[in-house]
Amino acid sequence: MRGNKRSRNIIIVLFLLPALIFLVVFMFYPFIMNFINSFYKSDGFLESTFIGLDNYRRLLKDDTIKIAVKNTYEIMLYVCVFEVGIAIILACMVDSITKGQKFFRTVYFFPIVISATAIGMMFKLVYSYDVGLLNSIMEALGQERRNWITVKSAVKMVSIPIVWQYIGFYFIIILTAIKQIPKELYESAHLDGINGFTKTIYITLPLIRNVIITCLILAINGVLKVFDMVLVITEGGPLNKSQILGLYMYKKAFADNTFGYAATISVLIVVLGLLTIFIVNKIFKKDTITY
Amino acid sequence: MSKKKVIGMKKKKFGIGTLLIYIFLSLFAITTIYPMIWVVQNAFKTSNDIMSSSFTMPTSLLWDNFKTAIVRMNIFKGYANSLIISGSVVLFAVFFGSLASFILARFEFKGRKIIKTLVIGSLLIPIFATILPVFRMLLSWKLIDTHRGVILPQIANNLPFTIMLLTSFMETIPKELEEAGVVEGANAWQVFSRIIMPITKPAIATTATFAFLWSYNDLFTSLIIIRSKAKFPINRLLTEISSQYGTDYGLLCAVIVLIIVPVLTVYMLAQNQIVEGMTAGAVKG
Fold first, then answer.
1. Could you tell me which chain B residue has the CA closest to the CA of A44?
2. What percent of chain B has pLDDT over 90?
3. What is the mean pLDDT of residues A155-178?
4. Chain A residues touching residue B110 (CB < 8 angstroms)
5. pLDDT above 70 (res A288)
6. pLDDT for B179-216, tens place per residue?
7. Residue of B51, B57, B99, B132 best to disrupt the A interface, most CBs of A under 10 A
8. Considering only CB atoms, which chain A residues are within 8 Å of B223?
């Protein structure tokens, strides 16, 4: 684009400005303010006193934080093993069949378009003591009804819909990657007598390694964003046993009016997120594969 | 070459292995379909009927739950609020996003790299890390309990993804196309709106569906910003009904159905767009 330089610069500024204003005002500025606020004792409205590292000391001593961090990593483990794991199995299977691929793709993606709120509510009903699907099954099998969400089981029961909802998402990504592997590679393997299961383990999986790593990073990152599902199903209970960081931060800010401490919790969420992504990247270094 | 292909394509025996694969795939399909069927069938029952048997199909179609949801709970108002919020978010995020992407993809200038890095970096900022100061700002601007209070931060939250995707798409458009436009005397706005935008349509559709679903399904922002029931988007309304009528299971099922049905209908109609929109970020990144 020629024209004179001045009008070119004006165009650049005018076109970029709206997006940049939004990013600065609603992301970068609050992000920095949030960090600063973590050093203050504040109720969010009137009171605001600088207290140095006190919020961070409180964070280290807070038992609920320990539970929430533990839960976060527990859910991350489930998500890596079951969500991405089942997605890989399903993708390899769907790739190997000839009829019905389209059907399974459509059906597996169902839960993703539905809001976590609605899914959470659905699972709350499924778990419910009086009317729940699980207890109906138990009764049909001649067993006693039981309480599905207990102090011991809460995190696991909450993890099930979290894991289940996004299996189809990673399934599609992995299936797309498998479909991009050139057919010639399989043909030569076929000539060497490699088929079925061995083919998947020795050829397919190594070739889509990078995509699997991307899926793991996305899935792990997704766990740090979980909120609606836990709020709807357990509200973090019983006894905070299924508490997660996002929900705890929300409660500290809007139920207990401790904005400064809530800001500290969200700093922890950011740090954990960056740290985990860093570690995952270190463990699984991406290789560049050329076909 | 052609012979090789024949060898690769042969061997389509329908053995035990294939059968097991179909069984396994179908079992997982049941987990995604059955819970919805279960909710639908219970939406037509009274709470007592559900308690005695939640498995069975309803004996008669009881529309009371839906009537209650629509009349007393004002579900349609919830839809309208959701549409206002998500529609505005899509409109502004896509428009501002494509303006910025056009510059980032087609112009060389000082600071371009920094801005690109900032945009990608902002993808790593979780909503939890910005919401408290945003809440305070909205409070001081008197935007708490308004739709605008939800729309503004949601636009910002959707911009990084939109810009990332549209920029990488626009970078692939051949330079010759816009040069032809410039020779004919088109200004920057005309190049953008008449040459670049029409070509970018598929990517725009992708980001628009993503932004819409993200905003329509988001609960967190509206939970914090919106206070009065008349302004609740659909998700917020659902949590409200659950806390007020938590034991009216039939009603809850009906409301879940009312929330799920429109999204699933849209999904069935625009399946390819939606799947691409939701997975595009992962495939690109």
1. B136
2. 48
3. 94
4. none
5. no
6. 888 888 888 888 999 889 999 998 998 899 889 988 99
7. B132
8. 250
Query: For residue B259, what is the nearest residue in chain A, using CA coordinates?
Result: A118
Q: What is the pLDDT of residues A34-83, one digit of tens each?
A: 999 999 998 877 778 899 899 999 999 999 999 999 999 999 999 999 99
Length of chain B: 285
Q: Which of B44, B125, B128 is the mutation pick for testing A, counting most A CBs within 10 A?
A: B128
Going A15 to A17 to A22 to A24, the CA torsion angle's sign is positive
With an 8 Å Cβ cutoff, are A118 and B188 in contact?
Answer: no
CB of A196 within 8 Å of a chain B CB? The answer is yes
Report the C-alpha gap between B63 and A20 in whole angstroms. Answer: 50
pLDDT band at A291 (very low <50, low <70, confident <90, very high): low
What's the mean per-residue pLDDT of chain B? 87
What pLDDT is stored for residue B16 in this prediction?
85
Q: How many A-B residue pairs are in contact by the CB < 8 A criterion?
A: 271
Spell out which residues of chain B touch residue A105, defining contact as CB-CB under 8 Å.
275
User: What residues of B are in contact with residue A92 (Cβ under 8 Å)?
Assistant: none
**Lowest pLDDT segment from A110-124, A241-255, A271-285, B218-232:** A271-285
Question: Closest-CA residue in chain B for A92?
Answer: B21
Q: Nearest chain A Cα to B185, which residue?
A: A3
